Amino acid sequence: MQQLFRILVLEDDLDLRGVLEEVLRDRGFYVVSSGRGSDAVAQAGQEVFDLILADIRMDAMTGLDAIEAAQRLQPQVGAIVISGYASEEETLRAVHLKVAGYLKKPFKIQELMALINDFVTRRTQQIHLQEQSQQARRALIWCLSNLQTLGEKLHPGRVTRVAELTSKLAQLQNFSAEVSAELGLTATLRQLAKVGALALPEQLPVDLLPSLNSALYQPDSADFLVVAAVLKLAAQTEADSTWPALS
Question: Cα separation of 188 and 183, whole Å?
């Protein structure tokens, strides 16, 4: 992880900046450094970083200003701040920016590395959990897609067309392609429940398919209303061989 871990160092003290670069590179980190906040933000606009190590007190753009601007470009980037003295206002702002650690000058390299190693550990765990969540999400989508295929075989003409129309309607309402697909799968579940082929689950993991959850369990949500509109239309036209088309 350290060999892939990317750190942006923002420090206007040339000597300290050089020491930080050397220490971090010796420990296997990819390091880019800058002595000005505006240059650091520009760098964040060109390449992705995992962590910003920044001095708070600097001329022109402060370290906290730079961190905030960089986080607008890269919301996932973490931060550790360095300062000889931090005011109450700066401390509160650092908390707002979710700064992972604070180093008071002068500090020992061991203190710096303890903060960075702790951040690396937590970020690695976070990435691992995200990967597990994505795997679970793909597995759930695969199961629901196959359920849709099976449901269509058991109830020809009553499942797939509902899912397809739901997805198309969602796209016309400016939902993303990903959300539209989730709503199509939701329509599959609700239609199969309607024909008595299955019982709806009481709940699903919210973080796997958020739109599916809201479309199933939140009647006031836009997701729920899109699926409900198509199911209502399906109920009205089941006896009619003509199925409305959306383009």
Answer: 9
Q: What is the pLDDT of residues 47-94, one digit of tens each?
A: 999 999 999 888 888 888 999 999 999 999 999 998 876 666 777 777
* 8 Å CB contact between 65 and 39: no
CA distance 39 to 70: 11
User: Which pLDDT score is estimated for 101?
Assistant: 85
What is the phi-psi region of residue 60: left when phi exceeds 0, alpha when psi lies from -120 to 50, beta otherwise? left
pTM: 0.69
Q: Which residues of 23-44 are buried (b: 16+ CB within 10 A; e: fewer)?
A: ebeeeebbbbbbbebeebbebb
What's at 2, amino acid-wise?
A: Q
For the chain, domain boundaries:
6-107, 136-237
CATH architecture of 6-107: 3-Layer(aba) Sandwich (3.40)
